[in-house]
Amino acid sequence: xxxxxxxxPLEEEDLTTLARLREPDSPERxxxxxxxxLSVTTDTSDATLLHTVFALGRQALQEDAxxxxxxxxxxxxxxEDDAFHxxxxxxxxxxxxxxx
Length: 100
Fold this sequence. Notes:
With 100 residues, this protein is mainly alpha-helical. 72% of the residues lie in helices and 0% in strands. The longest helix is centred in the C-terminal third of the chain and has 51 residues, at 46-96. The N and C termini lie far apart (61 Å).
């Protein structure tokens, strides 16, 4: 799928962060460069910075969604395992003639 341009309303805090991303020694710029591997220069466009921040947010959302899905799957498997082991114990007790 090709790229498309969307209008993005920016609040004052967003504009402040965008300005901080351009400051050579800012922690925000260091974090962006570390997390995205993007080397910010004077030629880096606002659109590139905004897209990179959006991509990092999208990645964080996907990681959180994956974590939730894995936790749900693990809980489901634990319940299935418990039911399976209970059935085995019950079957073994019936075979040996021991009352449950």
